[in-house]
């Protein structure tokens, strides 16, 4: 059957075609703007690996990361009480908490300096972090960063019952952080640490049949090892783990290790970490020396079996500005 | 008949009122210096460039511009300036240099990223990524 085409229908089709053609031409013109650009390709140059970790903190420890020059960071860190009292204090959530407020600034590339104040012991700390070298394909398989911290206990002590000398208030912490970004998702770091306390529990005298003996309850230096890692679940959400093992055996009050596990959420300017772990103090030398929250069951010096599982919930919030 | 007339006139009034309160937000002109607009993208749009840019996009851009660049990110509604739909040809018609300039310098609600993303190649990679959003 022969199709009939009415001339009146053509009158409607023509303007539609015309509009369509104009639209296409307009679209073509819009796309044509980039053609003026001269295509150049940059020579391939090995660059340091980026974002081994998203934040400067990994739960209770420093990450290997040092923000770029001009970065200013504000930290809010919070540790609730330890588990164990159940509903009475909502497993530590309503128990007395520890808080640290801190600020850091990066005056030059690879250096980050800061100060902070923790509620426990009204402890001021000053710290510095320096990226010695960074993981670079073909050059270095790992990133290495130094972190040092010095703290000053500012508790009120008019009668010198806590501190005989002013220098007794001082402690320090040093570590070398060695980290590798194994893939876009997985990064891991190891850090040997050395903590020092000018004043520890002191000495005591033991009187028995053998006579009088003077003991040093704790040593002034404590070696330790930190291990921490991150596994990215999405671009902005990660699982983070942190483990601290004290290495120096103390005569009494041996410090307990720290096992911490949590989540990290990252935005353009914020890092938010929520976790559970054993460290409740918010200072590395204090934690290295005095942590008695054990993740594992143990038998103390008197032969008493002590249950482990002394965890507390905590969070870190950091806000980063670039100047 | 009278009731019908009142109903139709009321409906017409409501329609007119709704048009009266509808404002179509036109993007404010954002002039880019000619020198910047003509800058060529030195970073090839390959898998490595797009992968690193996707990571940056999700971290720095998606909260306002949306995962697919539609301008529907979770923060978009709170902004004074509505983020543009990056999938449209009208947006994509900008030169690579213009996009680089706007990301680096920022304006109003759009922050400057030249300090937050200090490596220029990363911003060029973001430009490459923005090109993949085109419908």
Give a structural overview.
The complex is a heterodimer of chains A (323) and B (135). By secondary structure, chain A is mainly beta. Chain A has a single domain (57-156, 170-195, 222-322), classed as monomeric porin ompg (Porin, Beta Barrel). In chain A, 10% of the residues lie in helices and 45% in strands. In chain A, the strands form four sheets. In chain A, strands 3-4-5-6-7-8-9-12-13-14-15-18 form a twelve-stranded antiparallel beta barrel. In chain A, a hairpin with a 2-residue loop joins strand 10 (203-208) and strand 11. Chain A is globular. Chain A starts with 6 loop residues before the first helix and ends with a strand. Chain B has one domain: Cytochrome Bc1 Complex, Chain D, domain 2 (Orthogonal Bundle). Chain B is built from six helices and no strands. Chain B has 135 residues and is an all-alpha fold. In chain B, helix 3 packs across helix 6 (120-132) and helix 5 (96-105) crosses helix 6. In chain B, 51% of the residues lie in helices and 0% in strands. Chain B is elongated, with a radius of gyration of 20 Å. Chains A and B meet through helix 1 of A and helix 3 and helix 4 of B.
Q: What is the ordering of alpha helices and beta strands of chain B?
A: HHHHHH
β-strand percent of chain B reads under 5%
**End-to-end gap of chain A:** 78 Å
Largest sheet of chain B: none
Please tally the β strands of chain B and state the result.
0
CATH class of chain B: Mainly Alpha
Helical content of chain A (DSSP H or I, runs of 4+): under 10%
| CATH third-tier fold name of chain A | Porin
CATH architecture of chain A: Beta Barrel
Q: How many structural domains of chain A?
A: 1
- Overall pLDDT of chain B, averaged? 86
Strands of chain A, count: 18
């Amino acid at each position: 059957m022969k199709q009939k085409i009415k001339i009146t229908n053509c009158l409607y089709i023509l303007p539609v075609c015309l509009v369509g053609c104009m639209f296409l031409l307009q679209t073509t013109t819009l796309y044509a703007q980039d053609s003026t650009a001269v295509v150049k390709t940059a020579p391939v140059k090995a660059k340091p690996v980026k974002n081994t970790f998203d934040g400067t903190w990994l739960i209770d420890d420093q990450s290997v990361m040092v923000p770029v020059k001009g970065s200013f960071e504000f930290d809010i860190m919070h540790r609730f009480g330890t588990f164990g009292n159940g509903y009475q204090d909502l497993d530590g959530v309503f128990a007395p908490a520890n808080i640290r407020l801190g600020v850091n600034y990066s005056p030059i590339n690879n250096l980050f300096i800061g100060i902070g104040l923790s509620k426990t012991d009204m402890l001021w700390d000053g710290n510095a972090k320096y990226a010695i070298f960074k993981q670079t394909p073909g050059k270095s398989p790992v990133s290495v960063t130094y972190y040092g911290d010095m703290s000053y206990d500012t508790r009120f002590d008019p009668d010198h019952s806590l501190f005989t000398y002013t220098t007794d208030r001082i402690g320090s912490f040093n570590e070398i952080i060695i980290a590798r970004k194994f893939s876009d998702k997985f990064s891991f770091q190891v850090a040997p640490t050395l903590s020092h306390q000018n004043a520890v529990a002191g000495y005591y005298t033991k009187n028995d049949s053998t006579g009088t003996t003077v003991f040093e309850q704790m040593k002034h230096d404590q070696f330790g090892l930190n291990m921490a890692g991150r596994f990215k679940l999405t671009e902005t959400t990660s699982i983070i783990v942190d483990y601290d093992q004290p290495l120096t055996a103390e005569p009494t009050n041996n410090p307990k290790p720290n096992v911490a596990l949590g989540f990290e959420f990252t935005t353009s300017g914020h890092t938010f970490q929520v976790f559970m772990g054993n460290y409740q103090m918010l200072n590395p030398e204090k934690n290295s020396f005095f942590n008695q929250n054990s993740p594992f069951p143990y038998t103390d010096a008197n032969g008493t079996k002590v249950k482990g599982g002394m965890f507390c919930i905590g969070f870190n919030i950091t806000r980063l500005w670039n100047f | 008949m009278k009731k019908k007339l009142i109903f139709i006139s009321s409906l017409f009034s409501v329609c007119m009122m709704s048009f009266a309160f509808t404002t179509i937000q036109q993007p404010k002109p954002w002039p880019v210096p000619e020198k910047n607009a003509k800058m060529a993208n030195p970073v090839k749009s390959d898998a490595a460039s797009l992968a690193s840019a996707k990571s940056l996009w999700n971290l720095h851009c998606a909260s306002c511009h949306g995962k697919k660049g539609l301008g529907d990110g979770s923060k978009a509604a709170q902004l004074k300036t509505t983020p543009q739909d990056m999938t449209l040809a009208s947006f994509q018609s900008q030169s690579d240099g213009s996009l680089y300039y706007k990301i680096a310098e920022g304006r109003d609600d759009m922050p400057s990223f030249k300090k937050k993303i200090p490596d220029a190649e990363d911003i060029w990679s973001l430009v490459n990524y923005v090109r993949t959003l085109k419908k």
